[in-house]
Write a structure and sequence with these properties.
alpha/beta, Rossmann fold, six-stranded mixed β-sheet, Phosphoglycerate mutase, PGM_Phosphatase
């Protein structure tokens, strides 16, 4: 049985400011680097064998800290693990979006990637990794929306809604033909 550990990247300045990041490549800030170090320390006493990461820098920085702590020298980078494309709202706060497009901005076509497509690509890559690395413990460092929407698709009864904290750990496995969640959004290392 393959065990998958899903980790959201550490915090960035745009997270602090409440700006939609999407696929804009924003690095970790100082606190984010400390969070990455904290999750790396936590995982150092566990047996994780492989690390996948989004191609965006904030995820890779987090994954590199974890890999260094675990002695895993190479990260497997997969673009499908990147965050939702937020289109025209990237780099804006809620207040700025309301000022620019009005209170109903969510109803407008602003180039944002559809949630169902994000969930579909997230589930596809998780399923592919599970098959490729049978009986391994695999970490996937990604982003809040990708992780949350994938969980909603994999375990809809358990996750009608999700919230994923920075550097939280969620552990899922598929012991039979059904996914189960063993740990959700855990930040005990912070």
């Amino acid at each position: 049985m393959t065990t998958i550990g899903l980790i959201r990247h550490g915090i960035t300045d745009w997270n602090v400011l409440g700006k939609a990041q999407g696929i804009t490549d924003i690095p970790l800030n100082e606190e984010g680097r400390k969070q990455a170090s904290a999750i790396a320390d936590r995982l150092s006493s566990e047996t994780w064998e492989i690390i996948y990461s989004s191609d965006l820098g904030r995820a890779q920085q987090t994954a590199e800290a974890i890999g260094s702590s675990l002695g895993i020298k190479s990260l497997l980078i997969d673009e499908r693990l990147r965050e939702i494309n937020c289109g025209q709202i990237e780099g804006t706060t809620e207040e700025e979006r309301i000022a620019r497009w009005g209170a109903n901005w969510r109803e407008l076509e602003l180039g944002m990637e559809r949630f169902d497509l994000v969930a579909k690509r997230g589930v596809e890559v998780i399923e592919e990794i599970t098959i490729k690395h049978q009986n391994k413990n695999v970490l996937i460092v990604s982003h809040g929306a990708l992780i949350g929407l994938s969980l909603q698709r994999l375990l809809p009864q358990m996750f009608p809604k999700t919230y994923i904290d920075n550097t939280s750990l969620t552990v899922i496995a598929k012991p039979q033909d059904v996914w189960e969640c063993r740990l959700y959004n855990c930040t005990k290392h912070l």
